[in-house]
Amino acid sequence: VLSDELPESNCFKTFEAIDNAPEEKTRGITIHLCTVGYSTTCRHYAHTDCPGHADYIKNMIIGTSRMDAAILVVAATDGVMPQTKQHIALTKQIGVEQLIVFINKADVVDQDMLELAELEVRELLELFGYRNTPVVAGSALLALSGDQGEYGVKAIHRLLKALDEVIVQPERDDQSPFMLMVDHTYSIRGRGTVGTGVVYRGVVKKHTEIEVLGFGQRLKSNIADLEIFKKPVPFAKAGDSVGVLLRGIQYRKLRRGMTICPKKTVPMTNHFHVTLYCLTAKEGGLGEPILSTHFGHAFIHVFSSAVRLDHDQEFIMPGETVDVSVTVSKPIAILTGTRLVYRSLNGHIIGYGLVKKALKPVVLVDGRLKKAIVPPLKQEEEVAMEETQS
């Protein structure tokens, strides 16, 4: 629709161009993340297409970690599915406070079924604190074919109007030192290695000296070039989805979850203090107590890893908020206030939390989390920036 009405600032992309992996084409579902850009008359949007299928919830967590708002798509023919509740819970836990609902396939059900689908969605949104959420009913297929009816192009107009008028652009931290967590990497022959991601804070300019942190590595580099949706730019600021061309870094050394930042601005450690909330079963959590030493998976922005969780209580009950220490196998860059999602080893959501402070690294005997030498939380010491520079 936008490519027809505002062609100078919007380029049409087919479904095959967005979901282009072989399995995505075969199964007709989104598996991998894909970010596309488009503009209305008011704003420019970076839109990340996230998988909705339950098998790919990990990819969905990584996608929502970099969003200011979300569009929840529900099929009128199916209504609320089991994974819909999990998606809304994760969206809330990641810190996405703004949401719009698009009920798709509205053209193939009667009015009663459409109203029932909206009622189910609204009840679920209320449970997680999303109130007065705009709901737009339409048909993506009709809009794609250029149908001018209520469920075709007009529905997309209503959706875009809701985005422009309801979604409030959050305040950006443009004053702190630049930081970006890499979500994709690729190599340009003859030029170097590119890391893409959303600028978490600050402003970055071309030719800036930086370091790349993560997985126990500290790599020095220089930003040779910047691109936003394949257009060269002199700088990028907090909130921008940007590609960063790094000089002197081998492609195989740059990994998703690594952090790009100026030297000595972000601590790196394998151990940090987290305030964790354990979800109840009603909230979409596992609904079981956590023992004093627990092993699971943590998701921090686009980084994910097996972790060890330790706390000073005998166990944590669902619904409790407790201070814990989290240990990962390889040191990563971590900031106070960073959000974290914690899942069990078999994929159930357990809880979410906020990083209170980076702690001194702990020793892993034989490199194993089970053999980590973890002191009681009360005796833990915050890591000094100088200690992370070795």
UniProtKB/TrEMBL annotation:
Keywords: GTP-binding, Nucleotide-binding
Record-given protein name: protein-synthesizing GTPase
Protein EC: 3.6.5.3
Highest taxon of the lineage: Eukaryota
Organism field: Cyprideis torosa
GO cellular component terms, A-Z: mitochondrion
Pfam families associated with the record: GTP_EFTU, GTP_EFTU_D2
Tagged with keyword Methyltransferase: no
